[in-house]
């Protein structure tokens, strides 16, 4: 299967949907799948037609994590294992660092690095049939890299419970834990995701880029440093054409015309 077949791309009204398309392999994050996803994300970062990215999957499994058959074929190669986990970590950071919002559309099961993928996205909408787990502990391989994204989305004790037990978490509980934003009937999943994506796509792309970067940077700072940093960000943001247009449009009671600058 080619990279283009592994991950399909469709763009409509500023919303680009990337679909993991190896249902026969449970959309596992093989080396090839990770590289294809990395390449897609790099291209979309520079694509002027894309304002919001939706990450979806075909079949009944969103993503089962790493390809264990591939890992078994390279059990004696530390170099391969390190390359695989480094590439996976790179992809997760690409999502966070992408200058455009990324929404996970989750139908089915997301486990291990698949759960990590959901946690790495900026937003996530799940069908009520979706389930999540970090089950590495069950096979003697602790979900250490998925832990990074998971522990930055849910509380410490809930993250530890998922990591230590490896048990499945239903969609409703995942929403309560903060792993996903919304849980909806599977019949309206696409409609809900599209409505959310369209709302965000209607904002200034320049403003979204500034806000997403600032959000993740300030999270790693102390309180005083975070306020100093975001004050500077807002002062700089105020000089942008879109900020000035937005303020004038609000005061003039009209719809703003974004220039994305």
How do the strands line up in the largest sheet?
A: 1-2-3-5-7-10
Radius of gyration: 19 Å
CATH topology of the largest domain: 2-enoyl-CoA Hydratase, Chain A, domain 1
CATH class of the largest domain: Alpha Beta
User: How much β-strand is present in the residues?
Assistant: 15-25%
* Residue share in helix: 40-55%
Main β-sheet description? 6 strands, mixed
Number of helices, counting only DSSP H or I runs of 4 residues or more: 12
Q: Mind telling me which CATH architecture of the largest domain this is? A: Alpha-Beta Complex
Topology:
Layout: H1 3-6, E1 7-12, E2 15-20, H2 31-45, E3 52-57, E4 61-63, H3 68-73, H4 78-97, E5 102-106, E6 109-111, H5 113-120, E7 123-127, E8 131-133, H6 144-151, H7 156-165, E9 169-170, H8 171-177, E10 182-184, H9 189-201, H10 205-219, H11 223-237, H12 241-252
Parallel strand pairs: 2-3, 3-5, 4-6, 5-7, 6-8, 7-10
Antiparallel strand pairs: 1-2, 8-9
């Amino acid at each position: 299967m080619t990279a283009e077949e592994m991950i399909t791309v469709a763009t409509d009204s500023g919303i680009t949907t990337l679909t993991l398309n190896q249902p026969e392999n449970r959309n596992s994050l093989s080396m090839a799948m990770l590289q294809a996803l990395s390449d897609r994300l790099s291209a979309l970062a520079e694509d002027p037609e894309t304002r919001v990215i939706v990450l979806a999957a075909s079949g009944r499994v969103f993503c089962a994590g790493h390809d264990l058959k591939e890992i078994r074929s390279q059990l004696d190669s530390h170099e391969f294992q390190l390359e695989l986990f480094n590439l996976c970590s790179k992809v997760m950071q690409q999502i966070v660092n992408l200058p455009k919002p990324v929404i996970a559309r989750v139908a089915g099961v997301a486990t291990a690095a698949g759960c990590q993928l959901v946690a790495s996205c900026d937003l996530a909408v799940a069908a009520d049939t979706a389930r999540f787990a970090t089950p590495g502990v069950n096979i003697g391989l602790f979900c250490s890299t998925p832990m990074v994204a998971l522990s930055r989305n849910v509380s410490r004790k809930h993250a530890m419970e998922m990591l230590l037990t490896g048990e499945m978490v239903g969609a409703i509980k995942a929403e309560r834990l903060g792993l996903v934003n919304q849980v909806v009937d599977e019949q309206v999943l696409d409609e809900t995701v599209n409505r959310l994506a369209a709302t965000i796509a209607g904002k200034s792309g320049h403003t979204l880029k500034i806000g997403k970067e600032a959000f993740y940077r300030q999270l790693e700072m102390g309180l005083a440093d975070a306020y100093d940093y975001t004050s500077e960000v807002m002062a700089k943001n105020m000089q942008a054409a879109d900020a000035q247009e937005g303020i004038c449009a609000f005061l003039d009671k009209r719809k703003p015309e974004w220039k994305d600058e």
